[in-house]
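Entry 14. Structure prediction run on the chain below.
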Amino acid sequence: MSARAKVNTMKQVIFDTDIGIDDAMALLFLHYAPDVEIRAIVTGFGNASIADTTRNALYMKERFGIDAPVFRGAGAPFGAALGEGYPDFVHGRNGLGDIDIADPAGKPDSLDAAQAIVDLVRDNPKQISIVAVGRMTNIAEALALDPQLPDHVGELIVMGGAFGFNGHRGNVSPVAEANIAGDPLAADIVFSSGMPTTIVGLDVTNETIMNSTYIDGLRRDAGDAGEFLHQISRYYLAFNERSTGRFECSTHDPSAVAYLLNPGMFETQQAAVRVVTEGIALGQTIWSAPDPNYFTSAWKDIPTCQICTGVDSEALLRLYRDTLLMAVQ
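Output returned:
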């Protein structure tokens, strides 16, 4: 294969993240995946404050030698959000399970995250995959800067939402998932924009479970990456044990990366998707068959997204482990 042909097989990725524990798991998945080039890490509020998530991104960039600029993004939602503050009971006060974190030497790029998204996509039409594992705020802001952005993005893969498949519902309300509920208006804007979007929701992320034995194996076999994941996961697994009685965790954000790397592991369907932006169902993701003939006009001419309805969990866990083992090769 020629050098030019090899370059064309590379996935060029913008990683949009509110770096908490499972975001960190996803970032290392991307970093060690062959044929992936991380072009930018853009940060947002969510699992921790924008100051903390940006610091976490810089810390991981330096610790693991991730060759990508970090752009600081949104610190607050577009509109009403479900809940206040940050989920330190899930991710710790620092977003990474309260492990000791050295102050990073570097700083984020001076360019705003939304503008960085627009510039990278415009400079590389149809070549950029955006993997978004936090609030949709940065992407909604990028759409405000450039309404034609959907025509130039290669693909958008979102970890967020819950549609009721496989018996899974919301995790911050009966119907809402945390990333979407953290900025419902932004999510509704993005999902209605016509951007080529795949939504990897709780319907599939709750189907893939990392237990303590699995994570112990990463610690044993995946070098510093495995040790880091083991350290940050202690807090996360303890939260889940308090909630479910089991010392394990669902594979949320890494599932979005798994879709990027091997979409064949997932079952999907096309759907128009809207997000509830007010009231008791704030943050709920609702899907409809394309082009419905309803009395309401709320679904008229809504572009479709692809939503994930099933996953080969064993294959996903194998892919994650095999990829992390590349850290020591």
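Residues 8-328 form a domain with the Inosine-uridine Nucleoside N-ribohydrolase; Chain A fold (CATH 3.90.245.10).
Filed with the rest of this week's runs.
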